[in-house]
Amino acid sequence: MISLSDLRQFKTQGRKFSCLTCYDASMAKGMEVAEIDTILIGDSLGMTIQGHDSTLPVTVADMAYHTAAVRRANQHAFILCDLPFMSYATLNDALVNAKTVMQAGAQMVKIEGGAWLAETVQVLTRNGIPVCVHLGLTPQSVHVFGGYKLQAKTREAADQLIADCKAVVEAGAAILLLECVPAQMGKEIAELFPHVPVIGIGAGADTDGQVLVVQDMLGLTFGKVARFVRNFMTEQTGETAIVDAFKAYHLAVQDKSFPSKEHTFQVEL
Ligand code: KIV
């Protein structure tokens, strides 16, 4: 089973790692066969599984239920689990809710925000719970942003993002996840922290890992699809097509052919 130390080693070696969201046992087994390195039990399940229009209705019980299903079926990947909307608003809530998802099988929790999470990161880490901080476009704040939009588009906003990353890394964040930011930011932030793996989604080709929502990369998202999504199903056929799409994704991340320029945001900062 891949550990946090393995991910740090991958970073040191320049070996890119793959991550997909996953919510159920069948997909988790397919990802095990395809040797996907890390799995995120994302609160995107509010949309992909539950049919809501945002991640806000998702509960800690939902996250624990899906995490347990995935862990039972996959003994290979490092598993991160989102703490959902408002479940880490106080230190006590963060501890109680992180305990629930860790006991369900997660190896790390992911929380969304910036420098203001420093104390939460420190307290969770001290209690044996590794933390990934998700920055840039943070879907739990969609109503603050007024939509799902590219973040850190100006030098000032980019510098603020860097300051937020520094604050949470100093507090003990073990992984950063950057969503929907210019490719230059993914590169700058991954280079800034030699021992902290940085996962990107719409953050360019230079982050240490890449993540996609599984339904997006299998072509199961109807309506508008984000620029950073590539459909890995289109060239696959036959009984193992889904597993082959996972394998193609894993290889494309490793050989750096995904994401290509068409899947990234190029902004001069
Ligand atoms: O919930 C989720 O799927 C996520 C990814 C978009 C990174 O946070």
From TrEMBL:
3-methyl-2-oxobutanoate binds at D43, S44, D82, K110. This is 3-methyl-2-oxobutanoate hydroxymethyltransferase. Catalyzes the reversible reaction in which hydroxymethyl group from 5,10-methylenetetrahydrofolate is transferred onto alpha-ketoisovalerate to form ketopantoate. PANTHER family: 3-METHYL-2-OXOBUTANOATE HYDROXYMETHYLTRANSFERASE (PTHR20881:SF0). It comes from Acinetobacter bereziniae LMG 1003 = CIP 70.12. Belongs to the PanB family. Keywords: Cytoplasm, Magnesium, Metal-binding, Methyltransferase, Pantothenate biosynthesis, Transferase. It comes from the Bacteria. Gene3D superfamilies: Phosphoenolpyruvate-binding domains (3.20.20.60). GO terms for molecular function: 3-methyl-2-oxobutanoate hydroxymethyltransferase activity; magnesium ion binding; methyltransferase activity. It is found in: Cytoplasm. GO terms for cellular component: cytoplasm. Homodecamer; pentamer of dimers. The gene is panB. Its main location: cytoplasm. InterPro entries: Pantoate_hydroxy_MeTrfase (IPR003700), Pyrv/PenolPyrv_kinase-like_dom (IPR015813), Pyrv_kinase-like_dom_sf (IPR040442).
